[in-house]
């Protein structure tokens, strides 16, 4: 529970009301849900499956493990809402597997920042793209991973 201005509000109150939105990255749309009234959160499973797949398959494992992002388990209303979104709004585009308490949420802001980080790593390590004015890169020491 989170202390509101006048009273105590459940962290997942907006999910219980069925409130959600969509964000777009390139041609991919993913749902986000609200916590604490207006904070946007995205399901890690959907984010990884729909947006990070190429990065996860090609980047070295240690690149993905470098950043630490706080995640949160789904509450019952959040599970129900994500299952409803998948079944009724996307014709199960996100798969037949139901969302459970094993699934995790991260803030949409953190997810977007992680995507930018992986995109940069991909351009530098895999594509080896150099951009005029680049002020960053990677240095391999002692030829080790």
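-> sequence recovered:
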């Amino acid at each position: 529970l989170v202390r509101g201005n006048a009273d105590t509000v459940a962290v997942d109150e907006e999910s219980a009301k069925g409130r959600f939105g969509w964000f777009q990255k390139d041609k991919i749309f993913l749902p986000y849900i609200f916590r604490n009234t207006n904070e946007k959160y995205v399901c890690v499973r959907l984010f990884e499956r729909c947006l990070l797949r190429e990065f996860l398959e090609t980047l070295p494992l240690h690149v993905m493990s470098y950043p630490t992002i706080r995640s949160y388990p789904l509450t019952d209303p959040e599970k129900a809402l994500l299952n409803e979104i998948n079944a009724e709004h996307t014709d199960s585009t996100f798969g037949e597997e139901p969302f459970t308490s094993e699934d995790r949420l991260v803030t949409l802001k953190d997810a977007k920042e992680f995507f930018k980080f992986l995109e940069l790593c991909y351009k530098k390590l895999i594509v080896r793209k150099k951009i005029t004015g680049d002020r960053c890169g990677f240095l391999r020491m002692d030829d080790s991973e």
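Helices lie at 13-16, 44-58, 61-65, 76-89, 108-126.
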